[in-house]
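Reviewers of the previous submission asked for a worked example of the structure-prediction workflow described in the proposal, so we include one complete record here. The input consisted solely of the amino acid sequence. No template or homolog information was supplied to the procedure at any stage.
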Amino acid sequence: MSEIFEFLKNLTNPESIVKLGLPLLLFVIFAETGLLIGFFLPGDSLVFISGLLCATNETILKVGIAELISCMSLAAIIGNTFGYFFGKKVGEGLYKREDSFLFKKRHLQTTHSFYERHGGKTLFLGRFLPIIRTFAPILAGIINVDLKKFMLYNIVGAIAWVGSVAGLGYFLGDKFPQTKDYLGYIVIGLIVVTSIPVLVTYFKERKSK
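From that input alone, the workflow returned the following structure tokens.
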């Protein structure tokens, strides 16, 4: 039981995920961008730290930054595609699902409000926002967004998100190796900055109701 708990604990620690190897890293990105329960997994911080540690050669990934970005982008694309078809299959019945430890209806509602405000751009913008990133492809499937349009936003958004965030991490790790000593602060900063638009949307939705 303690081993299972330790593994689950590592899933919320981006530095531990990166150091445990490429397969786990790619699975977490896939899950965070496509599985209903993936919203609690690290996203931006994981991608950023993977780029940073790739530059400082403190991982067992054994790939260069170009290969790393390509693999993570592909995982994010597959994750969103899975989420889209999942949403298409379950339909609006998901709105009637009761809240549980791994599912909160308010996350879907917040994403819906964000989608109503930004339209199809949500599939691109949502890549850079926690929770929205997980639920946007599922919502796109529920409301039957055209598959070609969805895949365009999916592919462009994945490459832009992974490329910019991991690229920034790699640049800082390469030019300022001491940055790795402040990973804890960086993770907190990324969570705060990326959560602000989500919280604003959530409270606007509550106010309108």
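Residues 87 and 118 are 19 Å apart (CA to CA). We consider this example representative of the routine output the project will generate in years two and three.
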